[in-house]
Amino acid sequence: MIQLRMTQYLFQGIKNDLSRPHKYAYERMGYVFIKPSGKSVLVVTGYEPIPDEFYIKDRTVGARIDHRGIALAMKRADENKEGILHTHIHDKTGIPRFSTVDETDHLNFLRSFRNAEPNMPHGFLLLSNDKLMARVWYPQSESFQNIFRYTIVGMPLAFNWIGAFL
User: Which of 7, 51, 145, 151 is deepest in the core (most CB within 10 A)?
Assistant: First the structure.
C-alpha cells in the first residue's frame, strides 16, 4: 500500500491556506508537490497556493482557475522533477470524497501534469477538516490508486495505517 508523508508544519500551512476566504470563489485550491521514496512512500516536498488573480468567476463550481494556475504547477514540476497533487479542502469532517465535478476535471489536469513531468506520479489530494485522501496515477498507468495511509511528522505525530483514520 502507498503512503503519503509530510511534516506537520507543511500540513498546517496547506490547511491554513486552503481555509482562507476568496473574494468570489467558494473554495481555494493549491498544489502539493511530491517525490517517491522507495516503492511505497510519496514524500510531500512543498506547496504552492494559487494566486487570487488566477481564479475565474464561475458560480457552477466551488472554484475554477485559468491556464496560469496550471502553468504554475507545471513549471515547478518540470524544474524540480516533482509530481503534482492538485489539492483543495471540503469543509466537512470524516473521510473526504471527490465530487462529481472533481472527478470530471481530473483527467484534464492529469494530462497537463504528465506533460510537465512524465516520470513522476501525479494526482489529487483532498482534505476534510480532520482527514485526507489522495488519488494518484503512476507513470504509464491509466488507472489510479486511492491513498488512505498517511503520516504527518511532527508534534503530535499523526498517522493512518491499514485504512483506519484518526
Answer: 151
pTM of the model: 0.92
Cell of 89: 479542502
Identity of the residue numbered 12: Q
pLDDT tens, position by position, for the chain (166 residues)?
Answer: 899 999 999 999 999 999 999 999 999 999 999 999 999 999 999 999 999 999 999 999 999 999 999 999 999 999 999 999 999 999 899 889 999 999 998 989 999 999 999 999 999 999 999 899 999 999 989 999 999 999 999 877 676 765 544 4
Q: Are 166 and 129 in contact, with CB atoms under 8 Å apart?
A: no
What residue spans define the domains of the chain? 3-160
Rounded to whole angstroms, the Cα distance separating 25 from 59 reads 8
Query: What CATH code is assigned to 3-160?
Result: 3.40.140
Backbone angles phi, psi at 2, to 5 degrees: -85, 145
